[in-house]
Amino acid sequence: MAVETNDIEWVVACAASEIAEEDVIRFDHAGASYAVYRIAEGFFASDGWCTHERAHLADGFVLNREIECPLHQGRFDIPTGKPKSPPVCVHLKTYPVRIERGEVLLGVPPQAKATS
């Protein structure tokens, strides 16, 4: 289910109970792939692909506020997408997340629908 406003489309990524704390899952929508995280501060989302090489971050390792890429072990800050260790040096795009009725909703740009 998706709810669209002028600048964002809210889509259900998963049930909140599907993601354990300090974990990540993959969510694909309209031709784009995302990583949805649960850390002590709450739920977060980013582009699913590492900015260094084509590795999906949902295959990586979450520790505290960081996701480690499974390919070359570069790390990103989950809430901000900021690169934390080489070889990653390009920020990871992040997306708004909210929880409603036990579901994790991801805010994606409406134009993402046109890419499907």
Automatic annotation (TrEMBL):
Belongs to the bacterial ring-hydroxylating dioxygenase ferredoxin component family. This is Ferredoxin. PANTHER family: FERREDOXIN-RELATED, RIESKE DOMAIN-CONTAINING PROTEIN. Keywords: 2Fe-2S, Iron, Iron-sulfur, Metal-binding. SUPFAM superfamilies: ISP domain. Residues 11-106 form the Rieske domain. Pfam families: Rieske. GO terms for molecular function: 2 iron, 2 sulfur cluster binding; metal ion binding. Its cofactor is [2Fe-2S] cluster. InterPro entries: Rieske_2Fe-2S, Rieske_2Fe-2S_sf. It comes from Caballeronia sordidicola.
